[in-house]
UniProtKB/TrEMBL annotation:
NCBIfam families reported in the protein's UniProt record: MDH_euk_gproteo (TIGR01772)
Record-linked Gene3D superfamilies: Lactate dehydrogenase/glycoside hydrolase, family 4, C-terminal, NAD(P)-binding Rossmann-like Domain
Organism encoding this protein: Miscanthus lutarioriparius
PROSITE patterns found in the cross-reference section: MDH (PS00068)
Name the UniProt record assigns to this protein: Malate dehydrogenase
Any matching Pfam family: Ldh_1_N
GO MF terms, alphabetically ordered: L-malate dehydrogenase (NAD+) activity
InterPro entries: L-lactate/malate_DH (IPR001557), Lactate/malate_DH_C (IPR022383), Lactate/malate_DH_N (IPR001236), Lactate_DH/Glyco_Ohase_4_C (IPR015955), Malate_DH_AS (IPR001252), Malate_DH_type1 (IPR010097), NAD(P)-bd_dom_sf (IPR036291)
Keyword Oxidoreductase: yes
Length: 340
């Protein structure tokens, strides 16, 4: 990468996400699944983040090459690659944030639920290692189905005696990124100024964008437009899977979303005030034990789980419709954690 391009990329990241440029504490970030379709671009983006001083890349295979490649980028983070079960502990040791994109991707016709048996087992093993080697780290769960993998992680940590509800996050940022993009295009407003909260879960109808709370507000959208935007946000993953015609799922946009959320976590850890992102966390916002909503991040992870705000009738109906499916996914994760 040419120095001018690196400089402009870093500057773009700083502008778009408010990356800090002053001195910050040493922070280690570990990416589990770093050689995969999400893991590789995510590794690149985290290498560019000036808040990261040490970047630990882990996968079952291929990591030395990814680490060597990324390490040549002239940004401050020191990169190390780790491969195989025997190096997992070293990869995790001392991590402040652990990001988990590990697992198999979706293929055409495959629902997130189809991913369950494979990815659930992978997540369970990785979380067992996290409990042992870096129990105080913030854990950012990307591996699908998030509605089930986050409860699995919670149960693994509970069994190990290390569970802290403030430090476990399901990364639903891609739903927010999509909602912002689709809303901005339809409403004709600058995408960089848009914010749209997305609540519920991270699959199909459990994804509920709250366009009534979108900023800047738009009077140009009909109810039909809002319903179409809602459905497109819910089906965003399928849109990419079909467009890639069997050769992959949402990897680049997911890597970007994962980097955005990890950056927010790092800012919170560093004491930057008023860092708010949507995330799937342990929650009392509804009767469900886990739920995605806006969360204020701080030095301990979750500082505050924020409420849903005022919902319109369409959103209230969507909220009631999603609860059954989300409840089932959560229970499926808990059952897997105890039964396998």
């Amino acid at each position: 990468m040419r120095p001018s391009l690196l400089k402009s990329t870093a500057e773009l990241l700083r502008r778009s996400r408010g990356y800090a440029s002053s001195a910050n504490p040493e922070r280690k970030v570990a990416i589990l699944g770093a050689a995969g379709g999400i893991g590789q671009p995510l590794s690149l983006l985290m290498k560019l983040n000036p808040l990261v001083s040490s970047l630990s890349l882990y996968d079952i295979a291929g990591t030395p090459g990814v680490a060597a490649d990324v390490s040549h980028i002239n940004s401050p983070a020191l990169v190390k690659g780790f491969m195989g079960d025997d190096q997992l502990g070293e990869a995790l040791e001392g991590s402040d944030v652990v990001i988990i994109p590990a697992g198999v991707p979706r293929k055409p016709g495959m629902t997130r639920d189809d991913l369950f048996n494979i990815n659930a087992g992978i997540v369970k093993g990785l979380c067992t290692a996290i409990a042992k080697h870096c129990p105080n780290a913030l854990v950012n769960m990307i591996s699908n189905p998030v509605n089930s993998t986050v409860p699995i992680a919670a149960e693994v940590f509970k069994k190990a005696g290390t569970y802290d509800e403030k430090k476990l996050f399901g990364v639903t940022t891609l739903d927010v990124v999509r909602a912002k993009t689709f809303y901005a295009a339809k409403a004709g407003v600058p995408v960089t100024e848009v914010n749209v909260p997305v609540v519920g879960g991270h699959a199909g109808i459990t994804i509920l964008p709250l366009f009534s709370q979108a900023t800047p507000a738009s009077n140009s959208l009909s109810q039909e437009d809002i319903e179409a935007l809602t459905k497109r946000t819910q089906d965003g993953g399928t849109e990419v899977v079909e467009a890639k015609a069997g050769k992959g799922s949402a990897t680049l946009s997911m890597a970007y979303a994962g980097a955005v959320f990890a950056d927010a976590c790092l800012k919170g850890l560093n004491g930057v005030p008023d860092i708010v992102e949507c995330s799937f966390v342990q929650s009392t916002v509804t009767e469900l034990p886990f739920f995605a909503s806006k969360v204020r991040l701080g030095k301990n992870g979750v500082e505050e789980v924020l409420g849903l705000g005022e919902l319109n009738d369409f959103e209230k109906k969507g909220l009631e419709n999603l609860k059954g499916e989300l409840k089932s996914s959560i229970e499926k994760g808990i059952k897997f954690a105890h039964g396998n």
